[in-house]
Amino acid sequence: MGEPWFKPRSFGYGATPITWQGWVITIAGMAIVVFSSLLIPVLAVGTLWVFSAIVIDVVVVVGLLIVSRSKTEGEWRWRWGNE
């Protein structure tokens, strides 16, 4: 598995980036979602843009979740910060 890119959050559920690779993939995922949501309506004609933007966003978010979960040291679970 190598070096972990993410660590479990102190509060709540999920993980937070701890290395430059984790930050790069998080920022890239956010940028793709924002740009697809902003640019596809401008570039596409008709109602196809809604479906395209949703599909791109879902694929990127699911991909980010899969990578971050597989590159996290420890398990994902709800945390209250007292650990």
Polypeptide structure, described:
This protein has 2 helices and 4 strands, in the order E-E-E-H-H-E. It is an alpha+beta fold. The protein has a domain of 43 residues. The strands form 2 sheets. Strands 1-3 form a two-stranded antiparallel sheet. A two-stranded antiparallel sheet has the order 2-4. Helix 1 runs antiparallel to helix 2.
Bulk shape: elongated
Mean pLDDT: 85
Strand order in the sheet with the most strands: 1-3
How far apart, in Å, are the first and last alpha carbons? 25 Å
SSE pattern, N- to C-terminal: EEEHHE
Structural class: alpha+beta
Number of separate strands: 4
Oligomerization state: single chain
Task: Please bin the fraction of helical residues.
Answer: 55-70%
Largest sheet: 2 strands, antiparallel
Outline the low-pLDDT stretches: none
| Strand composition percent | 5-15%
Concise account of the structure shown:
The protein has helices at residues 20-43, 48-70, and strands spanning 6-8, 11-12, 15-17, 79-80. By secondary structure, it is α+β, with helices and mostly antiparallel strands. Helix 1 runs antiparallel to helix 2.
Layout: helices, strands, pairs:
Elements: E1 6-8, E2 11-12, E3 15-17, H1 20-43, H2 48-70, E4 79-80
Antiparallel strand pairs: 1-3, 2-4
Helix pairs in contact: 1-2
Structural descriptors:
single chain; 83 residues; alpha+beta; two-stranded antiparallel sheet; two-stranded antiparallel ribbon
